[in-house]
């Protein structure tokens, strides 16, 4: 078990030194190790991360519509991004895991690393308040947000879904109109995105068929990337 | 168009008087009316609401596991709850809507009301910072959170999905095992929840078949209640 002194490099990388080292320990404790573990901290950390990244995107891109901000955020807070950040922090070596998880390589499991990182955000809030979490999130995410080129449009969800499936050698999805709703001037199209190979069907709505398809693809990506 | 004086009762109900009345106006402006409208504010308000409700549930229920906190939050931040709060604030009379929306009763549309309420949270943040939003969210949600009885378990997602469908005279969902993943000690079950009448299939995962079914039902509810 890593002592408090051993956690100094991690706290330096986060840009926050915990007054309550117990909170830091809890954030690094997987439920397989015992209680207090990090699941409740992860719950609040996830919310804080989502809201802080939203605020930073809002400020950085004053002219982007909500849909684009939303897609940029989804990309920044998904497990894969958190996993990469956790690797940079060398978070695996600080985790407390039960024996089963230890043996099966839990220290490297992307979901365990991503969850612990979110728990660190939650613990930072309890230790020192909202602005302290803003500081930690900024330390980690500023380079990623700075690297976003708003002129270069992000790939749309249909394209990303297609690439996700192709990378896994799975057949492409089919989009099926399943209906419309509302009067003519506020008509909404409803489209189903069917991915038989993954036994998944999602639905999207929008004021055009294309918009509904994109939303359905977005929902499918969310389900598949979980 | 409501003048600033006309917005005094709303600000009293929120417990926040805006220094920048332009932010308040923008939060009340639907995109059908013109720009600046409230979609970007809604984006940040949604994140803030989610994180603040998470923090309040975390503090109020020190012993509830993450899954229960998550379900309680989903219930508090869903459109129906926001719509009810917006009605209490009489938010409809303050909204600025384009002519088409006005004629089709946009003032009463639950999604428009819920979105404007979220936009008000975002506007409050920009006007006065995080603690000011905590104040507004607390004003509105404290009675709802106080009314939660942790001893009385919330209905589980499968039950709620069944009730949702029955209320709409639709046939019940079917749950189909679609596979398992992982080694024996970390095995995950994958279950599909199929709702033919709504042309919706969702997926759930869990360490038991029951847990996977509940997660699939939860995903279906999220899709249906959108």
TrEMBL record, chains A, B:
Q: Where is the active site?
A: 46, 118
Enzyme Commission number, as recorded: 3.1.26.3
Q: Which SUPFAM superfamilies match?
A: dsRNA-binding domain-like (SSF54768), RNase III domain-like (SSF69065)
Q: Which ranges carry the RNase III domain?
A: 7-129
Catalytic EC class = hydrolase
Looking at the keywords, is tRNA processing present?
yes
Name the positions where Mg(2+) binds: 42, 115, 118
Q: Which InterPro entries match?
A: dsRBD_dom, RNase_III, RNase_III_dom, RNase_III_sf
* Keyword Magnesium found: yes
Keywords of the record, alphabetical order, are:
Cytoplasm, Endonuclease, Hydrolase, Magnesium, Metal-binding, mRNA processing, Nuclease, RNA-binding, rRNA processing, rRNA-binding, tRNA processing
Give the location in the cell.
Cytoplasm
Name the SMART domains on file.
DSRM, RIBOc
Listed cofactors: Mg(2+)
GO CC aspect terms: cytoplasm
Which segments constitute the DRBM domain? 156-226
Quaternary structure, per UniProt, is: Homodimer.
Function as written in the Swiss-Prot or TrEMBL entry: Digests double-stranded RNA. Involved in the processing of primary rRNA transcript to yield the immediate precursors to the large and small rRNAs (23S and 16S). Processes some mRNAs, and tRNAs when they are encoded in the rRNA operon. Processes pre-crRNA and tracrRNA of type II CRISPR loci if present in the organism.
Per its UniProt record, what NCBIfam families does this chain match?
A: RNaseIII
**Family, as annotated:** Belongs to the ribonuclease III family.
Which PANTHER family does this UniProt record tie to the protein? Answer: RIBONUCLEASE 3, RIBONUCLEASE III
Q: What is this protein called?
A: Ribonuclease 3
Source species of the chain:
Oryzomicrobium terrae
Gene name, Swiss-Prot/TrEMBL: rnc
């Amino acid at each position: 078990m890593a002592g408090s002194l051993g956690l100094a490099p991690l706290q330096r990388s986060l840009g926050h030194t915990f007054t309550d080292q117990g909170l830091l320990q809890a954030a690094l404790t997987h439920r397989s190790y015992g209680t207090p573990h990090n699941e409740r901290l992860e719950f609040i950390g996830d919310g804080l991360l989502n809201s802080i990244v939203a605020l930073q995107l809002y400020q950085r891109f004053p002219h982007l519509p909500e849909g684009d901000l939303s897609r940029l955020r989804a990309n920044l807070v998904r497990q894969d991004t958190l996993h990469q950040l956790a690797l940079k922090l060398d978070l695996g070596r600080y985790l407390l895991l039960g024996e089963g998880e230890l043996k099966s390589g839990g220290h490297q499991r992307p979901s365990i690393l991503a969850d612990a990182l979110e728990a660190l955000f939650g613990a930072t809030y309890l230790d020192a308040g909202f602005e302290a979490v803003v500081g930690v999130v900024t330390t980690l995410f500023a380079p990623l947000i700075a690297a976003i080129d708003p002129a270069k449009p992000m790939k749309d969800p249909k394209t990303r879904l297609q690439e996700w499936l192709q990378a896994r050698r799975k057949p492409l999805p089919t989009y099926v109109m399943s209906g419309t709703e509302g009067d003519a001037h506020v008509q909404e199209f409803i489209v189903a995105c069917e991915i038989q190979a993954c036994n998944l069907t999602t639905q999207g709505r929008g004021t055009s068929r294309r918009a509904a398809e994109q939303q359905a693809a977005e929902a499918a990506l969310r389900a598949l990337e979980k």
